[in-house]
Amino acid sequence: EFPGTIDLAKNRLAALANVMTQRACATQSTQWNYQTLAVSVPNPHVAHVELNRPEKGNAMNLTFWREMVECFKSLGADGDIRAIVVSGRGKIFTGGLDLVSLTQEMPDFFDTSKDIGRRAKSLRQTIEQFQQSFTQIEQCPQPVIAAVHSACVGGGVDLVTACDVRFCSADAYFQVKEVDLGLAADVGTLQRLPKIVGNGSFVKDICYTARKVYSQEALDMGIVSRVLATKDSCVEAALNTAKLIAEKSPVAVQATKESINYSRDHPVTDSLNHVRLINQCMLQSEDVVKSAEAMLNKETAVYSKL
Ligand SMILES: CC/C=C\C=C\CC(=O)SCCNC(=O)CCNC(=O)[C@H](O)C(C)(C)COP(=O)(O)OP(=O)(O)OC[C@H]1O[C@@H](n2cnc3c(N)ncnc32)[C@H](O)[C@@H]1OP(=O)(O)O
């Protein structure tokens, strides 16, 4: 009877909902304060982690290695976050291990006055800590999407191989650069890349030669699943994919990540048993009923915080 009044009320409610969503996103993003990473929540339930040393080519110093663990532990434990995008600020995605910090912040590496056994032990601990920086991405329950532009060198390849999904821009290249520095890659590439691309000859080709793999070859060989024209369109595509994931049941998505990752490292029979154990719990989730009802009623299901 009062169509004008009803429309007005509807518009006000929509505006209010919009403001509340923006406030929720802003409140969430203030809890992550880092020197080498910028974390924001551009869409509800979606976190965007940007490597944030653009003036240093997002090179990985000691602070970065520590903050990656803190950041992904914190995001992983956040029941409001359902998908995460990782990209790099500035001209390049990352130049990898900070070669300046290697000499300035990690003097133990080169201190020949110390006993070899003690130096080796200290180095082993450092490598383990650095490995954890990227293993934390794999262990975080939410899917992580890498959006790579321009150079992704050394530690950058270690980082993106720990992510669940990789997109890149047309100008991107991947370089397993370690042999050029006289070392074997040791923070994940040699372990994860063969399982991503499934072509041992290609993996050894690029790891022995440190040659650059440009976007088209990266797509052909399965390092990435999409190539976008520019950095901006690449980040946008990653955020859109994250948004799509965030609309699904977080129970279903996180169990899916856990099962795929487990199956990568175990025989099929063990993996089938593993998913049985997950689903004997998760099939009882309210999300299953909600999803079925929404499907039958041609509605969109809304899932509660995990
Ligand atoms: C326990 C071990 C754990 C991990 C091990 C990881 C191994 C590796 O990561 S090996 C790879 C090491 N990285 C490199 O060898 C790359 C060195 N950088 C470059 O070759 C180039 O910078 C580039 C990545 C090709 C980018 O070139 P360009 O686009 O021309 O930019 P630049 O002007 O060169 O760089 C801008 C700015 O960033 C600094 N920078 C870039 N990468 C690094 C780095 N890896 N370490 C320290 N600094 C880096 C570069 O010096 C520039 O800074 P200025 O102050 O302007 O000089």
Automatic annotation (TrEMBL):
Transmembrane ranges, per UniProt, are: none
Subcellular location as annotated: Peroxisome
The record's annotation in InterPro entries points to: ClpP/crotonase-like_dom_sf, Ech1-like, Enoyl-CoA_hydra/iso, Enoyl-CoA_hydra_C
Domain of life, source organism: Eukaryota
GO terms for cellular component: mitochondrion; peroxisome
Instruction: Cite the annotated pathway.
Output: Lipid metabolism; fatty acid beta-oxidation
Q: Name one GO molecular function term.
A: delta(3,5)-delta(2,4)-dienoyl-CoA isomerase activity
List the keywords (alphabetical): Acetylation, Fatty acid metabolism, Isomerase, Lipid metabolism, Peroxisome, Signal
The GO biological-process annotations, alphabetized, read as:
fatty acid beta-oxidation
Swiss-Prot/TrEMBL catalytic activity: (3E,5Z)-octadienoyl-CoA = (2E,4E)-octadienoyl-CoA; (3E,5Z,8Z,11Z,14Z)-eicosapentaenoyl-CoA = (2E,4E,8Z,11Z,14Z)-eicosapentaenoyl-CoA
What Pfam families has UniProt attached to this entry?
Answer: ECH_1 (PF00378)
Q: What does this protein do?
A: Isomerization of 3-trans,5-cis-dienoyl-CoA to 2-trans,4-trans-dienoyl-CoA.
Family note = Belongs to the enoyl-CoA hydratase/isomerase family.
Q: What is this protein called?
A: Delta(3,5)-Delta(2,4)-dienoyl-CoA isomerase, mitochondrial
Where does this protein come from, organism-wise? Answer: Bugula neritina
What does the record give as the organism's lineage?
Answer: Eukaryota, Metazoa, Spiralia, Lophotrochozoa, Bryozoa
